[in-house]
Specification:
Layout: E1 2-5, H1 6-11, H2 13-19, E2 25-29, E3 32-37, H3 44-54, H4 62-74
Amino acid sequence: MTQISVSELKTNAGKYVTMAKDQDILITKNGKIVAKIVSAKPDKKAAWKHLTELFKDVQLTDADIEAAREERLSRI
């Protein structure tokens, strides 16, 4: 991860936009991190890990899923 100042970003914006395809860029102002440039491409592995962490303690049966489906459909 690269850390640069706002003035460095202004001077070499194209360079850092290109770099952001492969790594995160931290932007500092007066020595403090104020922003982060990240790649626009989705990180599918990280997203999947985040989702599985959210639902790691959820134990749903087919009956639970079907009951939730029926409840949603009954509201239409």
